[in-house]
Amino acid sequence: MTAFRVQVLTLGEVSARNARFRAIEPPVSRDDFERAELAGRGTALFFWHEANEGAPLGGFSWLCPGCGSWHYGQIGERPVSGWDEPRWVNSGTPERPTLTPSLGCRLWRDGECIGHWWLRDGEMVQA
Fold this sequence. Notes:
Blueprint: E1 3-9, H1 11-22, H2 30-41, E2 44-49, E3 59-63, E4 70-74, E5 89-90, E6 99-104, H3 106-109, E7 116-120, E8 123-126
Parallel strand pairs: 1-2
Antiparallel strand pairs: 1-8, 2-3, 3-4, 5-6, 6-7, 7-8
């Protein structure tokens, strides 16, 4: 079973990574950049979004360790699975999240990635 420790980033760390990505010459795809970073780092990336009008409890972004693509999720008052309007609940801490339901990347849905994960106590474990 594949597992990755989650590295929770601050907004400043996300901004610095984005600047580093945009400065690469010749340009590379975002997924290629993320796969290369993941190989060197060995951790899955995750960051929290502030609450706003569209997501009053906030949201999160996570990097699929299987394919290197970023995904967004919304926090809700109760977990809602499915692909149309899922909501996750964090029963862990902001530094070591535990999310329900599981996380599935769009390429996993199409059978092109291993990206179906449980996020438990700051670790992504393949579902």
